[in-house]
Amino acid sequence: MRERFSCNAANFRIEFAQRVMIPCWRIIPDEVRRGEMARRHRSKPDIEHAQVTAPPQGGRYRPLDPARLDQIVRAAFDILAKTGMGECPPPLAARMVKAGAELRPDARVCFPQAMVETAIDRAAKRVNLPGFIEDFGLTIGGGRVHIGTGGAATEVLDGASGQFRGAQLRDLYDLMRLIGQLPNVHYGLRPVVARDMDQPFLLDLNTGFACLKACPKPIGISFDGAAHLPAVVSMFDASLGRKGGFRVQPFCFGVIVHAVSPLRYAPEGVEIMQEAMAHGMPLQICTAAQAGATSPVTLAGALAQGLAETLAGLMVVDAIQPGYPCIFAFMPFISDLRTGAMTGGSGEAAVAAAAAAQLLLHLGLPSTASAGMTDAKTPDAQAGYEKGYTVALAAQAGADMINLSVGMLGSIMAASCEALVIDDDMCGAILRAVQGVHMTDSAIDLDRIEAVATGEGHYLGEAQTLALMKSEYVYPSLGNRQSISDWQDAGSPTIWDTAVTRTKDLLQEPPTHLPKEREAAIRAAFDIRLPIGA
After folding, report:
1. Strand 252-257 vs strand 219-221: parallel, antiparallel, or unpaired?
2. For the chain, how long is the longest CA-to-CA vector?
């Protein structure tokens, strides 16, 4: 290297380009280059009509070796058997004791390992999540990676002003409209809390309506109280045009926090779980202890306690209806121990989320990880690298669902339409990376290599290249691959500039999957605050 290149940095770059980069293009005829570029331009995917990216098989990344994996699982079993869970509602506790649990004098319910293992064995290993449009339905479980939203952000970054403001119902609707169109986002869990809804029931009802009207993919919402579920499910029935329709096509899953760390049940969450199960609503039950605050400071200890709390949710499901469709959101959050605040974009958060996914995949349980929770306040370089490695590691570890992975800012306190569009682009590359190297019978064609090497000297015009250019490769919708001069000629747009334009384009047309007559019936029966024609 020293013999071929100057030590001067500028000369190095020039000589590298001359010796390495430029010659590889000089051997390709100009007409071939121009023709290929034209084809590439014409084939750029139209995101408004793009198909949703197929979920790839994850699980190649294993942050825990077999010994550590077994050690954490055994520790979780021991925690449930010895410490158990506090604040279990008495009727449920009695039911659990009858099934083999033990009730300590301090009213903590403890679960023998054999009882937990039995619940794992008969738990649902796959959970079907239909979309409002059934073609968007998902099967969750087994390490197939699905990208989604989530969170309960109270602020939005306004794309027009660049300022933060309180989230409104219209913001939720617009975010969910984007989710319905973006090809690398598989489901939409409501990302923001509509702060203009001044009553808990109105919030739950209008959140459900805004999500179902905006997005034809599977949606997820949470509830302030169990008493709100019957009305929301009745509204879902009306949206499908028949009583009991939601039980047949449960396009919305219930996102429920069943545990308060450390190691206590959330009685109101357990009550909501029971009501959701009574209505046939798939569950995504959550535990989100914060290492160093509500779980041990060591990642191993946090994972052991978090897995115990996750399995404690399974014990509720098993006591009520064994095998009920339930997805386990095991989300070990991380503290910045200098301040005590949650940090979503740290390297520790990335490895903890991946390890949580690995643990649930090992147990055969459908999983949800949390990633993409950048601490950055704007979609800048910090947001890019924090989202990139946290989402990528969770995906490579085989998380079945990755909540919070797109659109979030400021440690999940804020959301942004433009960030959502940018993150969709990122997730396209991540999902492609999870696929790995495609090995087919024709992937390595020695005769073709011989022909090209002794012939034209490039593969751009080969039939295989043209046939596979869309399936073997993913092309960014926002990421800029122009030359520097072309980019400057175009006005030097930043990715934020491009995202602002793309977001406006995507929000031009209203969604059409909810028939107008059904929407009218819903508005006549319920207090819907989203303006007509939104």
Report:
1. parallel
2. 83
Residue 510 has pLDDT above 90, yes or no: yes
Residue 234 token pair:
């009745």
264 occurs within a structural domain: yes
Tell me: pLDDT of 20 over 80: no
- Report long-range pairs for 493-496 (Cβ below 8 Å, ≥24 apart): 495/379, 495/422, 496/379, 496/418, 496/422
Give dist(CA 262, CA 167) in Å, integer.
Answer: 31
Q: Identify any residues that bridge with 256 across adjacent strands, giving them in sequence order.
A: 285
d(CA 191, CA 409): 11
Q: Report the alpha-carbon distance of residue 202 to residue 207 in Å, rounded.
A: 8
Do 250 and 211 contact (CB within 8 A), yes or no? Answer: no
In terms of residue numbers, what domain contains 218?
Answer: 66-435
| pLDDT at site 26 | 35
What CATH number is associated with residue 170? 3.20.20.480
pLDDT digits (tens, 9 = 90+) for 328-349: 999 999 999 999 889 999 999 9
Terminal CA-CA length for the chain? 62
| Spacing of C-alpha 315 from chain mean position | 25
* Domain-located, residue 519: no
Strand order in the sheet with 164-166: 164-166, 155-157, 414-415, 408-409
Residues 6 or more apart whose CB falls under 8 angstroms from that of 525 comprise 234, 235, 238
Burial level of 224, CB count in 10 A (0-12/13-18/19+)? middle
Q: Let me know if residue 22 belongs to a domain.
A: no
Instruction: Determine phi and psi for 137, rounding to 5 degrees.
Output: -65, 150
Residue 46 inside a domain? The answer is: no
What burial class does residue 517 get, using C-beta atoms within 10 Å of its C-beta: 0-12 exposed, 13-18 middle, 19+ buried? exposed
Are 130 and 249 within 8 A, CB to CB? Answer: yes
Sign of CA dihedral 172, 174, 176, 178: negative
- The HSE-up count of residue 169 (CA atoms within 13 Å, CB side) is 21
- Between the CA of residue 154 and those of 26, 409, 533, what are the distances in Å? 54, 11, 25
Angle at 272 between CA 143 and CA 405, to 5 degrees: 35
Say how far apart CA 438 and CA 419 lie, in whole Å: 31
pLDDT tens-digit profile of 145-156? 999 999 899 999
pLDDT tens readout for residues 250-266: 999 999 999 999 999 99
The number of folded domains in the chain is 1
